[in-house]
User: Fold this.
Amino acid sequence: MLDNSAGSRTGRPRDSRVDAALLEAAAQLIAERGYGALTLQAVADAAGTSRPALYRRYSSRADLVVAVLIDRYGLQPGAEDLGGIEAELLAIQQHQRDLFNDPVLRRAVPGLLEELGRTPEVAQRFQEQFMRPRRLSTATILERAIARGEIAPGVDSEWVCDLITGPMLIRALVPTLGPIDEKFVQYTVQAALDAVGLHKH
Assistant:
């Protein structure tokens, strides 16, 4: 009997319902209590599963929270050709407005950034699966704009990524600086258009 149960455990594929329950439980706990109060035991309890089941999937709290952010926002905004650089930058910034206003991200980021500094392997996953797709999307927007003749070649896409994301991140970290609203979206897009030499009229 013990052998059979052990065999079923080792041969059983991962249950996607458990994956989804764990990610949802972690997101709710972060929004309600903040990153610092998040424990793997609390997530397991809220998801109705065991801590070993959680540890089989995630190596640490930071690993779990990175998975939550990838699950919620691991899309590639900017992939759609909207016919012009301004419309496409607005689309990616409206996506980022939603991202940086999400209480899960706002309450996770300060503690997560600190913990990523101590866990290089999780930091690499965060960079590759969460940050890099967004930066590639911005680079794609700029490449399309060059191909259309809207802007000149030679634009530093990494700088434009910093330029549009940096202001949102600082307001997410320090909310007293002001809201991340549609007006702020417009300001950041205008700054990016100025930086690439395309001025709105």
